[in-house]
What does this fold into?
Amino acid sequence: MATALRFTLPALRSSTITAPTSIRLFASSSIRYYSSAKPKTLKETFAEKLPGEIEKIKKLRKDYGSKVVGEVTLDQVYGGARGIKSLVWEGSVLDSEEGIRFRGKTIPECQKLLPKAPGGEEPLPEGLFWLLLTGEVPSEQQVRELSAEWAARSDVPKFIEELIDRSPNDLHPMAQLSLAVTALEHESAFAKAYAKGMPKKDYWSHTFEDSMDLIAKLPTIAARIYRNVYKDGKVAAVQKDKDYSFNFANQLGFAENKDFLELMRLYLTIHTDHEGGNVSAHTTHLVGSALSSPMLSLAAGLNGLAGPLHGLANQEVLNWLQKMKKSVGSDLSDAAITDYLWSTLKSGQVVPGYGHAVLRKTDPRYVSQREFALRHLPDDPMFKLVSQVYKIAPGVLTEHGKTKNPYPNVDAHSGVLLQYYGLTEASYYTVLFGVSRAIGVLPQLIIDRAVGAPIERPKSFSTDAWAKLVGATL
It folds into this structure.
């Protein structure tokens, strides 16, 4: 049995900017002040909970470390490790029937419980980051403080700006994002402290600082890429009294539309985390397990997210929907949609945006976007097309018989919403996904370093060795 972990809580330095006696709260157009006791920062909250979490893990391993938790079939080995239970991921768990839960809370529960912008309807991603890291729903004041801290950390080094500006416009936006995040290694507190020989007990603190800096800088980096490739190259400054999603939308050039702001808050929240086994999450965790900095770890995860079987899926859905719209025109009848679905399947293609490796019901992330569309753009022709596909596709796919889950996932909807509000550059959509995914994977990286998670090193065999193991003759 593995040796129980020993961990000493380090002295903490505050992770927030200095605040006056009156706590600063944000309004849509001005700052308001309320007299209040200073709340705990995110770093203080996490540090306070950490000893108990470490003891929980120690006890679990001591009492049940030898217990078998599953079995592995040869099909799983050759099928991309699909469904093998072998990772620890605290932030979210995906149930085939219920969908995703963030620290035990469903998406509708998060929409209800997490703090919102003043007068807003969707949760702020700052609140979900807090929830994923600590397991606690933050107060509105704590989220406002976190918004302020991310804004304070948002300045991007000049050499990163120049690196983006010197990139050719036909270099894919995701490649530019990965390049910039990798170059931020130059600023890594973790890498610098490790080079000086910091003790293991301090790993998590420096990982926390890097993660906060990374998340804070991502919108400005991502917006600079967007404005360079598709617009005039001018990027608005971060407004220090605004929330994270407002600043990102404003830097992209869409802040004047309040509905788009709410969509950005929803988008950045629901795309953050989806268990630890997906490519971007697992890659970030794997590279981080080698004690690579959060910058290098996230860059690796972003490279995985860029693949067409992962983050590019929403772009492929939108392309397919646009081709369908061109084919059926204004005829959105059941018969027309059914015929187009069957023509897609009979040509050997899949219906993009439908099916999921784990889910066996409609993705709750799809549902949250559909409900947003019903409130804000019910008469949009592309949304009506999406709705018709949602009505017809499950039956067609069930009859086709080759899809375990005939229901839509998150990618089946997001592109249509972004198009409606004028963000029409589909090749950029994965960058939006990447900004959101950082908010989901970096909390686990902090937790990994805090509890002393080891380097990940599964055992591999050759095909001949596997055959021998199962008693096969080749």
